[in-house]
Design brief:
alpha/beta, DNAb Helicase, Chain A, Rossmann fold, ten-stranded mixed beta sheet, two-stranded antiparallel ribbon, 12 strands, globular, disordered C terminus
């Protein structure tokens, strides 16, 4: 008689994780985002880990005494073998330094167990031999998709949840479920030129540092979410979710971003910030600020949110921070794989993907300083895969007002303070052109050129 084969598991790794959590109070922060209680094979370890999570969620320290008290409160201390078993786990834990490694072993084994279970479910579906083959295949695909995503962490956070750190929670947003034919950027000239951001398009926004790339894509995300009720997935590989929300608040309230960051408000500014908080709390913008991600991670999280909520726009800031797959391949080839995958993601989810890209220093070496497609860093694949490429150019960054006045007729060509040229250099399905916007750096905000507020003006009230 052949003995039944046990599912994949590693009891020693489970013991090491629990022991590490009890020994090192900070160990929980390394694993809580990806390790779930159901990932443990041993029921005792599952119960102890759940107790640790309960302590963590209440911001209480995790150690032998607090875990024992929590288990006692849940009437489970004796179930796990009493305080003596906790002492045993501590004694056999080699070091808490490798808790993440041990946790990955547990998570991987759990994924294999889910795969085995899914195989059984798919086999059962196959034996049913339904007449609708397409429906049967879709059921099987859904089962496999759940295997790949169950327990996988998503760092996508609704902007309302971040705002609640600063202000009182507002009511749940009421979102209209409707088809959005295309995403409007909120900038009249750009929307007229592009016809909005089209479904399944990969759109690249590129500029040199400090020109306003992040500000512009945040403005687009805000306009789409608030004006069209579009669901936006924002992947910020450079800035934290708090910084992103501070920028959104500054732009919406028209309060200096430095004052928002430092909390220095006048009474009138505070009222505007509270009003802006209410507006942004209604915006279906989900933020993921994980700093080190592969394009596969971004795709997995986007697909999961799309299934749960229905995404209308994906924003990525920025391309060059996306990690390769770890293989020893040139960065240019890695970038080619990344842009091809992002284009595939846009087509698969049928949504526009707006990705920020850096430009090379070649822009600064030329006399004109106007960006060109060849200035894209690791440019070949970006230019090839993108449906739309547009640049931000601000001449005032390269020329002081005094120098400008010496070389220009200021009556006909006044100094371009705050002017930004949005240069559409590639448009696979439409015309090229230049759109002028007004950049307000103190608010991290772009406006249509007819809107020209200044700090302290009555227009801001």
């Amino acid at each position: 008689m052949i003995a039944e084969k046990l599912p994949p598991h590693d009891i020693e790794a489970e013991e090491a994780v629990i022991g590490s959590l009890i020994v090192d109070p900070d160990a929980i922060f390394k694993i809580v985002t990806f390790l779930a209680p159901e990932d443990f094979f041993d029921e005792t370890h599952k119960v102890i880990y759940q107790a640790c999570l309960s302590l963590h969620q209440r911001n209480e320290v995790i150690n032998q005494i607090t875990v024992a008290h929590e288990l006692m409160r849940q009437n489970r201390l004796e179930q796990i073998g009493g305080a003596a078993y906790l002492s045993h786990l501590i004694s056999i834990t080699p070091t808490p330094l490798y808790v993440e490694h041990y946790a990955r072993i547990i998570s991987n084994a759990a994924a294999m167990r889910r795969l085995i279970a899914a195989a059984g479910q798919i086999a059962a579906i196959g034996y049913e031999a339904g007449a609708d083959v397409e429906s049967t295949l879709n059921k099987a695909i859904d089962i496999l998709f759940q295997v790949g995503n169950k327990g996988a962490p998503t760092n996508l956070v609704l902007v309302r949840d971040v705002l609640s750190k600063y202000f009182e929670e507002v009511g749940q947003p009421s979102l209209e479920e409707k088809q959005i034919p295309h995403i409007l950027t909120g900038f009249i000239g750009l929307d007229n030129l592009l016809g909005g951001l089209q479904k399944s398009d990969l759109i690249i926004l590129a500029a040199r540092p400090a020109v306003g790339k992040t500000s512009l894509v945040l403005n687009v995300a805000r306009n789409a979410a608030i004006e069209q009720k579009a669901c936006v997935a924002l992947f910020s590989l450079e800035m934290s979710q708090d910084t992103i929300v501070q920028r959104l608040l500054s732009s919406e309230a028209k309060v200096d971003s430095k004052d928002v960051r430092l909390g220095h408000f006048t009474e009138r500014e505070e009222r505007r910030i509270m009003d802006a908080s209410g507006v942004l709390s209604e915006a279906p913008i989900y933020i993921d600020d994980a700093p080190q991600q592969r394009v596969m991670d971004i795709g997995s999280k986007a697909k999961r949110l799309h299934r749960e909520r229905g995404i209308d726009l994906i924003v990525i800031d920025y391309l060059q921070l996306i990690q390769g797959d770890g293989k020893n391949v040139p960065r240019v080839q890695e970038m080619s794989n990344i842009t091809r995958s992002l284009k595939g993601l846009a087509r698969e989810l049928n949504v526009p993907v707006l990705a920020v890209s850096q430009l090379s220093r070649a822009v600064e070496w030329r006399a004109s300083h106007r960006p060109q497609l060849s200035d894209l860093r690791e440019s070949g694949s970006i230019e090839q895969d993108a449906d739309v490429v547009f640049f931000i150019h601000r001449e005032s960054m390269y020329c002081e007002e005094e120098e400008w006045n010496r070389t220009h007729d200021v009556e006909k060509e006044p100094y371009p303070r705050g002017e930004a040229d949005i240069i559409v250099e590639k448009h696979r399905n439409g015309p090229l052109g230049i759109v002028k916007l007004r950049f307000l750096p103190w608010f991290t905000r772009f406006d249509n050129v007819e809107v020209v507020p200044a700090p302290g003006s009555e227009e801001l009230i």
